[in-house]
Design a protein that fits this description.
single chain; mainly beta; 0% helix; binds zinc ion
Length: 92
């Protein structure tokens, strides 16, 4: 089962989406933005590893994590209950 899914791919952008168990919504990372490489991704949709960390600012909070071997490592500056925890990513 895939944990990340390609949302958009064209000449200038490549965007991947995944479900965040902490926020209960979809977050994204870019492997290509403005035609240039952006986050690095190991290409494994079942056990994704992405570098560097991903930070998401929402109107009601902040979510910051590493994606490694299909898990999300939430950092301590998250405003949600999973701050400081590592959890398995959900299948999408
Ligand atoms: Zn989140």
């Amino acid at each position: 089962m895939a944990k990340v899914k390609l949302h958009l791919s064209n000449d200038t952008e490549e965007i991947w989406g995944f479900k965040c168990p902490a926020c209960g919504r979809t977050h994204q990372f870019w492997t290509k933005k403005d035609g240039k490489p952006w986050w690095s991704f190991n290409g494994d949709v079942e056990n994704p590893t992405v570098h560097p960390s991903v930070a998401v600012t929402m109107h009601d909070g902040f979510c910051h994590f590493f994606i490694k071997d299909g898990k999300m490592q939430f950092l301590n500056d998250c405003t949600h209950r999973l701050a400081g925890n590592t959890v398995e990513m959900e299948n999408i």
